[in-house]
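This part of the workshop introduces the protein records we will be handling. The question running through the whole workshop is how a given chain folds. To make this concrete, we reproduce a full record directly below:
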Amino acid sequence: MRVRAAVLNEMSLPAPYAQSRPLTITEVELAPPGPGELLLRVRAAGLCHSDLSVIDGSRPRIMPMALGHEAAGEVVAVGDGVAAFVPGDHVVLAFVPVCGSCAPCVAGRAALCEPGAAANAAGTLLSGERRWGGDVHHHLGVSAFAEYAVVSERSAVKVDDDLPFDLAALFGCAVLTGVGAALNATTILPGESVAVFGLGGVGLAALMGAIHAGGEVTAIDRVPEKLELALELGAAHAVTADEHVVETVRELTGGGAAHALETVGSAVVLEQAYRATRRGGTTVTVGLPHPDRTLTIPAVSLVAEERTLKGSYLGSCVPARDIPRFIDLYRQGSLPVERLLTHRLTLDELNEGFDRLARGDGVRQVLVL
């Protein structure tokens, strides 16, 4: 079938993207689903910094590629051997397909699925196949900036039909990554201090998760509107990210945060988050800097101060377990995910949307199809 999709043919075109048009909205041939795969009608897809980092070249991927990795949709058809899904099912997509049988999967660390990582790096589905016509590759097994997409059933999690698609999409990346980092990657006890560096969709989701855990949150960003939103969501303090941010956070938290969550994808900000963490504390990073960036920290602090520095991919989640869990918390009012959604776009507005994302305007923009 022929479907309209947003295809990136070349990375690192200059901003503003409204002029350089890195994403070409074009018709692409989409093959039927193979064994263990689903054909989806994409209903909503969020714009994330992980998409922007491919566009600007800081996260190199194989080209050309149909972008988009945070999405929700409706199953239209299933391939051979699919038993868990039927046409009409509503699903949220996770950006790591989970094979379920490799060593990390068996150990409960689905984010580190080895076949899933290999497929994502190659721009294929979990099967190793591509369903886009020509030489177009899949983005993280999803490619959601399109009217329809073929995905592995291992990328999909069934959700209730009454969850709006534009909100459901956010559970596939922003909520999964941010809330997961706060609830899975570290252990926040009631009353403990938490510093969240960066208040995009993932950062604000991390803030929600930390507040749900009972943490006293200090929110850090450069954008005043995001700091105001953080306070509305329950942050105890809002701090402008300037040259004094480390000292300010340490003062507000009585010597440093017990937990610091870095969501920006900047080695500089990660260093600040580490410096703002107290003795015995934990620094968690979910950001993805350019592979060439390095981090320098005092090596002795890891031992002498019993510090922990760790990464969290996919929120250290098991999607089939955590997406329903986080949706339940949303329904209970503990995670006001609707506050993340600030813009709704069409396919033809994607390039302008990524200009907005690069400027830091708004929180989560969602393509609605």
